[in-house]
Model the fold of this input.
Amino acid sequence: MRMQNEIVTLTRREAILRTALVTATAAAAYGSSPFTAVGADAPGAFALPPLGYALDALEPYIDAQTMQIHHDKHHAAYVTNLNKAVAATPSLAGKSIESLLRTLDSIPEGVRATVRNHGGGHANHALFWQQLRKNNGRGPSGELAKAIDSTFGGFDGFRSKFSEAATKQFGSGWAWLTVSENKRLAIESTPNQDSPLSQGRTPLLGIDVWEHAYYLKYQNRRPDYITAFYQVIDWDVVADRFSKSAG
Ligand code: MN
Done:
């Protein structure tokens, strides 16, 4: 009996230790880049990054059920399919997702569409989760705010152009605030899971306008979802991406 207890205690302790270790590793890797493979069990394999906050943290703007299905099912599927393509293509081994998407044209034709769609899906969603946080109406500040003002004539100008791009994207896709190498901001949209990285630009902020991102709560009312989205932009994350972008 005593021995059995000891075994149980050890196992529990071991389990706690293991959980703490995995969490710490995941947090460290996720902090360095949203694209970093976390908990990968093979070199070059990609893994689903943790949300980093509770599923209901964005309520009432984005509901918990949408977050759960979107992250645990949709994003997970992009990661699974990307990993299959990478595992079947030795020349892709060890490359970062940024590098794969920035050099799509040089990827073997047989897996190019998979990397474009599922690699893009992985990269886009990794960026998406990290930039979301209830902001209590706070907008951008610092250098990013100055750049937004000079490019779009103020925050309202930015918001109106960004919303227009998100509204007018026909079917599934994304609207983006991007920065190019000369540090110039732009608003653009991409179809499906295409990434601005494949166009030589760096995404700073993206809104997912696939129906899976909003349909449970907003049904067909994409404009209402877009309006709510401004309440959950973590402008500190966006500003950090801007300051780290090539200039
Ligand atoms: Mn999505």
Summary: The chain has nine helices and three strands.
